[in-house]
Amino acid sequence: MRNFSQAKRIVIKIGTNTLTQDGGVDAGYVRRIAGQINSLLQTNRQVVTITSGAIGMGANKLALGDKVINTKMRQACAAIGQPLLMAEYRKSFARFSITVAQVLVTAEVLNNRKTYLNLQNSIETLLKLNVVPILNENDSVSTEEIGTAFGDNDRLSALVASKIDADLLIMLSDIDALYDKNPRKFPGAEMIRTVYEITDKIKRSAGGKGSTHGVGGMKTKIEAAMIAANAGCRMVLANGRKKDVIGRIIAGEEIGTIFMPKRKLSNRSRWILNSTTAGVINIDDGAMKAVGSRKSLLPSGIISVRGTFEKGDVVMLNDKAKAVTNFNSTELNSLIGKHTSEIRKLLGSNRRDVIAIPEDIVFLDY
Ligand code: GLU
Question: Whole-model pTM above 0.70?
């Protein structure tokens, strides 16, 4: 039995295909969503919406149809489509006297501790004002190539849910649920109602990309579920076109798939876990075992260093954990295999005597 009576802070993500009809935004659908969100607000809940559809809207405005477009065109389409999308939300929510706010983010903003705190502050303030923040990626300024893009709003919505300590993430999509096989290829595929653990089998069964203008597929939904699972946040994946879907999910109806949380990491640990890594420190088995039992990482355990990074960056420890390093990559190269006592001799007496402290090391597996 699903029970969301205590879920106060809810993030709702709406995908491009769910939102559009014949290429354009489906105004009737946005109106119905606004109505459903209004009902949540009436019961003293807070709602943050993540919307896709800017690129699709822009492509529609330029009459590009289903033509696959390059990065520059996607950026242009996002800039054209985003205000059109917001106009629709603004109009629909105004019927319920609800003010909406547009917040556009990039992966850089969420990766950086300072800008992410700014984002957190602005969302908190908007929620206090009973405004519904509507977020999207700032596609016009972020690209995969320069590492500033999420690329998909699935992961973005989970990261936002994690940052604002949401109780529930509702992912509205054009698929009904998670299946044991791809239902579009295998008619006998079975729906999975509850996921307690995201196993390798589940990861493997999640196929590739979704649609032409939307970016997410099942793979990114699973990645989102993993982010939510580490933040103590439940996630429900459901078909956004089901009648009164939000209200029914909140009422506990078994719609779609629920992903149960595994652990609630501290805010700092979540930031480490969800950060893009700048390099890799390869360490030996002994050092891995030591950090696994909450000891600091010492230079003697380092085998090699890959990438160029700064002190304070998040790096991988082999392929198992992420850590904030107290030393940059050049310094680390000079410390490989050295005894702890040599750190200060080599790099100065004001330096830390460990590479990373236990609080700054987070294992990927849970
Ligand atoms: N940010 C993209 C848009 O507004 C959508 C990304 C996605 O489909 O997840 O068009």
Answer: yes
